[in-house]
UniProtKB/TrEMBL annotation:
Source superkingdom: Bacteria
Protein name: D-alanyl-D-alanine carboxypeptidase/D-alanyl-D-alanine-endopeptidase
Organism field: Nonomuraea mangrovi
Organism placement in taxonomy: Bacteria, Bacillati, Actinomycetota, Actinomycetes, Streptosporangiales
Record gene name: dacB
Regions that span the bilayer: none
Entry keyword annotation includes Oxidoreductase: no
Amino acid sequence: MRRTPASLVAGALVAALAWASSPVSPATAADPSPGVADLTQDLNQILSDSRLDIGRAGVVVKSASTGEELYSTDAGKLMTPASNTKLFTSAAAAEVLGLDYRFTTSALAAGRTIGSVLKGDLVLRGTGDPTMLATDYDALAAAVAAKGIKLVTGKLVTDDTWFDAVRLGQDWAWDDETAYYAAQISALTASPDRDYDAGSVIVSVAPDGDKVKVSTTPETDYVKIVNNATVGASTDVLIERQHATNTIVITGTVAGPYDEWVAVDSPTGYAASLFRKALNAHGVKILGSTVNRAPEGATELAKHESMPLSELLVPFMKLSNNMHAEILTKAMGRKVANQGTWSAGLKATSDFAKANGVQILNLRDGSGLSRRDGVTATSITQLLLSVRGKPWFKTWYDALPIAGNADRFTGGTLRSRMRGTPAANNVHAKTGSLTSVTSLSGYVTSAEGEPLVFSIMLNQYLSGSPKDIEDKIAVRLAKFSRTTPDTAAQLRTDDSPASSEGGDLECSWLKPVQC
């Protein structure tokens, strides 16, 4: 039976109370109740889907109250988690960096200031802030101008040494190089909008009479546009940056407005170009060129601080932002080992996970783009159970996507899934998608108010994305009752989860579609 809106509200209240409870207690003996037996039967039926005949499925369901395992299949098998990797990255960041952590971007003087002249260099120094917009660089430039500086006799020096110079993650696919969800990682970067896709620019096309008009957000000459597109009866356009350049070539036909998010080459130079442009607008002229190095003896003129991590977790987790994951990974490395590297940051994440009972974990990046990332369903559920006792848990839990909630920064990558079912506004979980990989892991409150944790990882299928299988499992868990078992027949006919998400990428990665 479908829940009424009133019962959905009541269910959300029960869920809130359940997840505010104490950490997990020691596991009890297996529950022999018919409810658990029927749950096992129904989940087995769901997983018997023919699309998984040649694939692999690792699934675990546990009671968050007792730690009791309610269901398990291939729980200890190493699986590719895709963006479920972000569960580990985000939780480790909350622990290692703290919810009050902020990134800083500074303007410094390397030289002497005489009147309105800086005899020396002006330095732009970053620590990886993925939320820096063109407007933020403008505000930083205005603060420099407010110091009375009008002329810089030296160079604009970019200092991105807070992180190392390795820009792309291990094992990332070469053909993702220009995709904004695989943008280069730098301690100096910029985002085009408040999704904060660091290191990318939005290229917009639209018909303008018999020609195609092209614009960028932010406005920048850092990228070179080669417009070979024509006005046509339909929009079938390719907007792609050429390898190892900042030349973006546009081909195909355009019938209406269309936007594409494109990763730039060298985010440090991108940030510098926005800052220099803003300085010019505020009457500050730099005579020299832009160079990249770490200066000595520079004095701070102005700085910008990002939102705290507690707020950044929302766009990071709701929209499954890969760049946030990698930047936070390097930030952790800098914090614990004074090394802004993937290796140091991944060690910090792995050490955190192991300290919280996770036994099997192989991380190659922070986002899950690498196909060599490996984790088990048991490892994920262990993490989900363990972090319930953390002081930052509620903030982290609230940052997870929420099933069926249409608000983009609430439902996130689950906003179009499981609508009109007992899972809607109940399931808080992280999605994950790569070609032949899908995953969903998180929290759900049962029909009786019992908090559950679950992990579902499906690998190596050759069909279209079987996310509906994940949804069916999550809905069944929301209907779980120890005393009034649901039946397989009810499962097939009631509360069929609706989902508009498909394909091999996270829903929020498909920017032009905004599914």
